[in-house]
Predict the 3D structure of the following.
Amino acid sequence: MNKENVTITVYGADQRCASCVNAPGSKETYEWLQAAIGRKYGNEEITYRYIDIFTAEEDEYTEKIMEDELFYPLVLVEGEIAGEGDPRLKSVYQHLEKHGLSAQEG
């Protein structure tokens, strides 16, 4: 079976979300996700993107974050929200597996 390339996008900012004071920052979350996902699934079929909400062109997600409809860091897997604020690995893993990834053996 040919696996598709899966894109994980993290929307965030250098400053912490006001509601996320005790949570890790966006960049820390982005790096933590890369490490955790890489250990479980490898990185061959995964593309990672980080989007700074204050410098990126506005899109539907940056707009919703700015309007406090969504918290950041916001994690998307193939354009679907997999977590926000303080994302949970279990949810991100479920989204990855839905797109055909499976855990590496060993």
About this structure: The CA atoms of residues 63 and 69 lie 9 Å apart. Helices lie at 26-41, 60-66, 89-98. Strands lie at 6-12, 46-52, 74-77, 80-84. The chain has one domain: 9-98.
